[in-house]
Amino acid sequence: MAMSSRSGADLALLLLGSYRNLVDEVVRELATRGYPDARPSHEYAIRAIRAGADSASDLARRLAITKQAAAKTIAALVERGYVTTETDPADIRRKNIRITDHGIGLITEGTAIFDEVRARWEGRLGAAELVELETQLAQFVGDSPINLDAPGWAAGQELR
Amino acid sequence: MAMSSRSGADLALLLLGSYRNLVDEVVRELATRGYPDARPSHEYAIRAIRAGADSASDLARRLAITKQAAAKTIAALVERGYVTTETDPADIRRKNIRITDHGIGLITEGTAIFDEVRARWEGRLGAAELVELETQLAQFVGDSPINLDAPGWAAGQELR
DNA sequence: AGTGTTGGTCAACCTGGTTGTCTATGTCAA
DNA sequence: TTGACATAGACAACCAGGTTGACCAACACT
Questions:
Q1: pLDDT in tens, B110-146
Q2: Taking every annotated instance into account, which residue ranges of this chain make up the domain HTH marR-type (chains A, B) (predicted)?
C-alpha cells in the first residue's frame, strides 16, 4: 500500500530528525577524534570567525545573534582552547579573535566528518538523488529570512 | 553550471533551515488565529496526551524526556488553558490530564496549518517529488535511535 | 506487615539564547 | 577643538526546555 501523503507535522519531524541524526553522528565522531566537548554551535562559530568575523560584534552580526550571545560563545571557545582573544592595538575597545591550531583542527575534522556522513547518505540514495534533495531543500529555505550563512538560528540544544 | 556536490555541513543547515522555516510559519500563522503563545513543543505534547499519555510520567515516557520536564510542560499547558489536571480518584498519586476545547483547537488549527504549508511545498515540488523526499528523509531517520512518535528531541528553542 | 515500585515535587543546574543598562573608546562634523 | 553620536564590550537578570539528584506519599505484591 503506497503510503502516499504524510502529514505536514510529520514532514517537520522528518526534517528535524534527519538533521539531528546527521549532527549527532558528527558530534559523536568528533568526540572520538579528540574533540569531546565540541558542540555544533562551536563549529558554526569558528567557521564564521574564519570567514572574517574577528570580533564579538562582528561575530554577532554574522551569526545574526546578539553581541552578548556572541560574547558567551567566544568565552566558551576560549575556555576550550579553540580561539584566543587579544586587544586590538589599533582600537582598544576591540578584542580580536584568533583561531588556534586546535580550533583549526576542530573544523577540519568536523568538515571531514560531515562530508563522510553525507557520502554515506549519498551511497544510499544515489548521487543525483541527493543533489536533487538538496536542491529541493534549498528551495524551501530560499524563500525565507533564513540565511544559510548566518546560522544563528541553528542553535537550540541540538544534542542530548 | 550544475552546482553538484554541496558539503555535508551545508546539508545539515539545509535540513534544519527547512524545518525552522516550516515550523516558524506554523507558529506565526497560529498566532494570528488566536494562539499567540503556542510553541511547537506544546503541540507535540498535546498530541502525545491525546494519543493516550494522560499523566506526567506517561507523557515523559512517550516524549522520551524526564518526568520533571514533562511536569514543566504540563504546567505551561495548564497556564495557557490547553489542558487541565485533576487527581485520579482511583490513584491519589496520579494527576489525570484532560485536554480542553482550547487545546483541541490548538492541535486542530496546528494540524491544518502544517498541512497547508506542506501543500504549498507540494505545489512547488510536485506531489510525487515531495513523497519521494519524505521517503528519503524517512530513510535517514529510520536507522537511528530517533523515534518520530517520541519527539522529545524536537525541543531546543525552535523559534526566535 | 514489609519491601519495592511508581507518581509527583522541589531545587539546582546547563545551554544558548534574550533585554536592558552601562562604560569606554572611537569618529565625524561644526 | 569640542560636542554629538556610534560602536565594542561587559554586567546582570531573565527565558525555554531540558537535565540530575533527593525526596515523599501512595500503591502493589508476597
A1: 999 999 999 999 999 999 999 999 999 999 887 555 5
A2: 8-142
